Amino acid sequence: MSTAARVTPDAFVADVQAPIAVRIQDVSKTFRLPHQKYSTLKERALHPLRSRTFEELRAAREISVEIGRGEFFGIVGRNGSGKSTLLKCLAGIYEPDKGQIDVNGRLSPFIELGVGFNPELTARENVLINAIMLGLTRKQARDRFDEIIAFAELEDFLDLKLKNYSSGMSVRLGFSVAVQTDADILLVDEVLAVGDAAFQQKCFEQFEQLKAAGKTIVFVTHDMSAVERFCDRAMLIERGEVVSIDEPAKIARQYNQLNFGRIVHADVEGERSGDQSAEIRAAWFEDIGFQRQAAVPQGEFVHVCVEIAFHEDMEDPIFGWVLRNDSGLAAMVSTTHIHNRHTGSFKAGDSIVARTGFAMRLAGNRYTLSPSVARRGVGSDVVDVREDMVTLLVHSSHITGGVVDLEQSFEIVEAAQ
């Protein structure tokens, strides 16, 4: 992993010949967490040696990347991966233990709820103070005051102390100040998730305007649809190290695989019926490379595999399965009978794997597989059915609300008169 931290694809920079806005070279940051904390002098006097033992948390490990001017750059990773620590190093809140950070331009950070605000002051006072701290003159701060408050939709709460604001109101105020400071580089952490849906949409529209204006934005988020929508490139971090720097769609897929791919692929036996003269012994999912998977990205080719052992002779048995989503809805059904396929002749003692392949177009959800074997004939005499035998997670960077997410074409034409 240490070599991966030095991978620095420069696709965006090379494509547009943009100068570098942010250069991060081999940056590392380690925190020392004491095993014993004291809240009073008495505790420290009674236990003078306890605080001398520490546990080290390596939040960032030799991270290197170059971000071009005008680039919308995403940083993603699971909780505790080190992405917010890296952003605070960029903002100057933390000093790196090792490495160098070069920022070419005026920087505006919006990286943690409440940072830079005084809870004992009113919104009016906080806006003016923070706007000046972020580089505006007193006149500019006063001139833009109404616009900042209007964007935050807090006109009725100007003289309320910030300690009485909700977290969502504080987010509105902080973001509104950050985007009005004419900064060249904007740092945005995942605190936008605290805001309501309407304000998040308003922020996304502001992102579009900033991007069109050529601003450099470094964006930390868990929202893969936002990464694909806005970012030119993105970086995936895990345990303080760079896993990959690539185009947004690829990073979104890697993030989902990292986040969901470690779920245990469990054979959970549910209800069972049939005489088991042909027995379903196992079931699993495979990717296009025939590797077993517990989670797959939407759009990938998938195999459903069912292992069957025959305890008596059988001619052209019917193999089938059902995939049900979290709501219990049968999202997909497949049987060899539907496709009028002959499966062959089997003798007692034979063991086979029935494999069905298809492109996964089901919507992102958790699905359970119920495989079945039946004798061919009128009524399809059931031999073995295993309900909810195994689980597959289908992950997607967007949610449509439907059961499937099919490839689509879209056009607008003039209506006939």
What is the number of helical segments per DSSP (H or I, 4+ residues)? 10
Low-confidence parts lasting 5 or more residues at pLDDT below 50? 1-16, 261-269
Strand content range: 25-35%
Average pLDDT for all residues: 82
Basic shape: elongated
**Helix share bin:** 10-25%
* Biggest β-sheet description: 7 strands, mixed
Distance N to C terminus: 63 Å
What is the total tally of β strands? Answer: 22
- The secondary structure category is alpha+beta
Computed over alpha carbons, the radius of gyration is 28 Å
Task: Based on the model shown, name its key terms.
417 residues, alpha+beta, seven-stranded mixed beta sheet, six-stranded mixed beta sheet, 10 helices, elongated, disordered N terminus
Folded structure, characterized:
The protein has 417 residues and is an alpha+beta fold. Helices cover 23% and strands 34% of the residues. The chain is built from ten helices and 22 strands. The chain has helices spanning 11-16, 41-46, 83-91, 123-133, 138-143, 145-152, 167-178, 197-212, 224-230, 248-260, and strands spanning 20-34, 54-68, 72-77, 98-103, 107-110, 185-188, 216-220, 233-238, 241-246, 272-273, 278-286, 292-293, 295-297, 301-310, 314-315, 318-324, 330-335, 345-346, 351-359, 365-374, 382-386, 390-395. Strands 10, 13, 16, 17, 20, 21 and 22 form a seven-stranded mixed sheet that branches. The protein has a six-stranded mixed sheet with strand order 5-6-7-3-8-9, with helices on both faces. A hairpin with a 7-residue loop joins strand 20 (365-374) and strand 21 (382-386). The protein is elongated. The relative contact order is 0.12.
